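User: Um, what's this?
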Amino acid sequence: MRKLCFLLVLACTSLSVAADNTLDELRVRLDEHWHPVKVDKSRDIKTYAKREDGKPFRSFKIEQTIPTTMDTLSHILSDFDSYPRWFWETLETRLLKKVSSKELYVYMVHRAPLGIPNRDVILHVRVEPMTDKKNYAILHATAVSDYLPLKPPLVRMAAEEFVVRFTALNEQKVKLEIEGYIDPNGNVPVWATNYVQRSAPYVIAVGLQRMAKLDEFKNAKSMPSFTLVE
């Protein structure tokens, strides 16, 4: 009986989310321009969404400033075991192959909404580190669907791509500008994917800020799998 009540609550919540998302679409009809989704002045986080020709789902953008260092961010982003603690609905993350300190392949499993199979993805990650001549680093991540055999019942995502620009404003403050797009593949309601792309960027931004405060990353002694500083 308790399980049935729980499922009913989840179903009602999903319908509420779908209705809310539909209303948002009516309020602001997304086009090729970035439209604000969430503005959190206290955390200095802004998220945006837009639609692009030829893509069924919306793209997202995050702008945030974190009181941290490039070295701390390097340790957070390369500690793959910690991703379930802060990255949106992540069940598993592990390093598949390290080509170099600037290139690697990463495997991730994402939890899908109730009634929809979980998704997995292989990301090809490339890093352009900050140098003495430029105060920023760029990280590129692109899905490589055929890097590993399929793992049913998991559904391989068609796209999970993002570009992150890390700009060191000073020795203790970094600005992040992130643009990305996901395509979960398979039979997923458009509202569910749009809800994720609308909510996930803010959750990820807050999670990254939270991790940057932890001593295990601020005072890490080990070498990260990749570094944002050359």
Remarks:
- The CA atoms of residues 24 and 30 lie 10 Å apart.
